[in-house]
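[job 0412] stage=fold_complex status=start
inputs:
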Amino acid sequence: MRIKRRIVKRGRIEIIPLIDTIVILLIFYMTFSRFSEAQREASLKLPESRAGDEFKKLPQQLIVNMHSSEHASIGGMKYKVTELPGVIRNYYMNLSRTDPSLAKKLKDGDVKPSIILRGSRDMAYKDLSDFMRVCAKTDLRDFLPPNSPAGITEVTFTAEEIRGK
Amino acid sequence: MKIKRRIAKRGRIEVIPLIDTILILLIFYMSFSSFETKEKRIDAKMPLISKTMNPGTKFELDLTLHVYSQSNILVNGASYDAEGLREQMKLFTTTPDQSVTVIIEGEPETKYQAIISALDACAQAKLTKVAFRPLSDKPAAGAAAPAAPAP
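[job 0412] stage=fold_complex status=done
writing structure:
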């Protein structure tokens, strides 16, 4: 008796749904990588300004998102402003371990430690004053050239561009 | 002779690909609309005046901006709104060595938006030496304010 050979169905990749899926994934990752990369908090309502340069984060800069003295966040972690000196010190300590070339630049004084403040437009001057005081208190002299003053002397403020006139 | 009637094919809208397309467009516009507002940076090189600062630091020409609100910013005893302040600040950029140091101070409840508006006016007038006076470092009432030139 002759046995019939079973026809094996070949699997086919459908191109059009594949393209759809790839595009959706691409949009998803493009969108969310921008927030995570820059440590920016999307819910923060920034103040508005006309002047200013394009937002750019340098490697030695730390982004602080701030709603008030009681609610600041760095890299998604919530802190009080009074806790920031320790957090900032840890950041530069980790940076000096993970990026020796940047650590050398800091030590040689080629770059300065700097903070990018993303403050809520409804925050009060009292909160800003507390933040400035914390910047002045933060002792980073271990990572800086000898005889450097304690404290962070460079702060970058961010704002939304005013559209229209 | 009987002529056969041609059967016209009716165009149909496929619902499932339509839903796919709408969904993709929706995600696309939702994602990119949030980036439409550009984020800007305003640098302040010397952001704090306090006791921690080197006592030898000398300011050649101080100009103090006292910010109460966005529509009430005091410069040399005169009140300006954010727009007026910008024009006023431009007068100070004409000094030959551009050595004006602007000190920004505020009331405890002054909104951050108003502070940034003052900083914005300085940045537009190309005055880049800006410092902030924290609340408790403010001179006591009646104390002489730093001298500021007449515009």
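[job 0412] summary: Chain A has a mean pLDDT of 83.
[job 0412] exit 0
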